[in-house]
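Training component of the fellowship. As part of building independent skills, the fellow (R.M.) carried out the full modelling exercise for a liganded target. The chosen ligand was iron/sulfur cluster. The inputs are recorded below so that the supervisory panel can assess the work.
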Amino acid sequence: MAGKLKIAVVKFASCSGCQGVLLDAEEELPFLVDNHLDIQYFIEATSRIGDGPYDLALVEGSISVPEDLKRVKEIREKSKIVATIGACATTGGIQALRNWSSLNDFSRTVYLNPEWIASLDKSTPISEHIKVDYELNGCPISKQQLLDFIVSMVIGKRPRIERNSVCVECKRLGNVCVLVADKLPCMGPVTKAGCGALCPSYGRDCYSCFGPFEDINVESLKKKFKEIGLKDYEVLHKFREFTGYSKQFREVKV
Amino acid sequence: MKSNQEPFFIQKKSLEIILSNLKLKGYKVFGPKLKNNAIVFGEVGSINDLPIGYVDTQGPGKYEVKKSSESFFSYVNGPFSLKNFLYPSEVDLLKVEKKDNKIRVLSNTNVVEKRAFVGIRSCDLSALKVLDKTLLGYEYVDEQYKLLRNGTFILGVNCVRAGENCFCTSMNTGPKLGDGFDLALTEMEDGFMLEVGSAEGERMLDGVELRRASEDEVQQAGELVERAARVMAKKVNILNLKNVLYSQLTNPRWDDVAKRCLSCGNCTMVCPTCFCNDVFDDNELKSGVTTRKRIWDSCFNVEFAETTAGNARPTIKDRYRQWLMHKMAYWVDQFGTFGCVGCGRCITWCPVGIDITEEVRALRGE
Ligand code: SF4
Ligand code: SF4
Ligand code: SF4
Ligand code: SF4
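Fellow's submitted model of the complex:
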């Protein structure tokens, strides 16, 4: 292997849970760091501040405050490959729920001196600001998918990131469909695979923390949800959770 | 191989002895079981594990199961089929180790256990023949399937109740079992009529109290199965179907179904004959071991027909058309049979209840 992969793990508006997934790879990480990864920047793990350039930047979090706008462009300039990780970075995250309300109203309700708050009007995905090479979805991301991705980058092969529905994973596992058999409003049919059908495997409905795959049919699923008894606002809420501000979900109306 | 033997009549509880004979002879026994509000296949130790008395109600995108009878086999198919066991959703094809710059193929030393399947219906036995043709019938055989398929014991059940989404009579695949079973049961009021289909089947009858079925019983059993066929509500007109469908590739019905279809792939996953797969390598850097894996794929996946020149089926309409056309038309050219055996699973487990029989009817202009 010709040298180690120089890597940065960068955070914007997020809970740090996706970086946590990388730290949680206790079995794999020491070997990778010893042999294949040169961690230049990873505030959650090391006080070393490597200024770049980086071979790979893993970007967590959404763009939410004015400083972010500049910093995200710098990251792009310094990095050969940019991969966004998690629902915040790929879709705007749970904090993007504010995008449908007035930021001002929130600031006034919460803070004594709302004028001290400098936030952007909307929380937006990284890909709306810079070119993103790969996206790993999920709230949080899947450890398996992240490690597969890193290994792919290390050995220089195309990463396998499935673009089909969660239903495909769900059926591969031999789960009984909770939408058909239990009439639960499962988002699996419009949600991108990668989690290993985690929620349906435990008998609950998917809430799309991985967000939509590219060619979804919102209208048809909405109709099904109404058929199984959901009210209009409940249908809307299904599409407005962790990935509500993804391109496909943000347009959903009832 | 079908035997010429006259059928027998056995007590229902004698099934217990057959199950224990199977286990004594080294089979791992799988059969219908209730799990998470549906009938699935699982390991069965005794007849008490079977969902005795449960009856399912199915509809397009609908499934319910409730206890409401005393019979052993009143339910029809659940979401899973023999495909889940013989052509599993994920298998390792090859393992290679790289150490000190040497590459070594690690042998696949998987010992395959003998498996017996209880309660297999005629549509699924037919689906097995479709898979056999596809995966074993040509120059290049699927070694994985062959390994898992070999020595599979089938204890079939003739359907005496048709499910709401079944249409095996249309596809000539049921409800009476064709050849290929080892033992076959027809459930009657106070016992089973038992047919023996193979020498291995006969060997499982040690200690079972057998008597020849009377002519009356044979006739009665036949009538029960015929009645199931008669009341089967769903139908597909297969007359000249392939050519009719080939002439309908631009029918506006495809646009209509594309408005409903989620492209979720559930239909292909539950279909007992869909065999599409994806192959990829799982590289472990620490151990130096790379595993080549095969995993179920679906023509509803957006990247399924993607090439460097573009996506051959970029829209949901293209993908739905591929699925229906493959099952009902292309398959005939490829393998000489339909790719559909009329099990109805794709209708039940389609979240939005798209019904392949309705789509065919609309395309035929009927
Ligand atoms: S449970 Fe959800 S994810 Fe699984 S098949 Fe049903 S709709 Fe799809
Ligand atoms: S196409 Fe549908 S009805 Fe036909 S065999 Fe497949 S799942 Fe069964
Ligand atoms: S219908 Fe689709 S998934 Fe099924 S065998 Fe044909 S191409 Fe493959
Ligand atoms: S026909 Fe139904 S099960 Fe099949 S992909 Fe479309 S919505 Fe999913």
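The panel noted the following from the submitted structure. Chain B touches chain A through 46 residues (CB under 8 Å). The mean pLDDT of chain B is 96.
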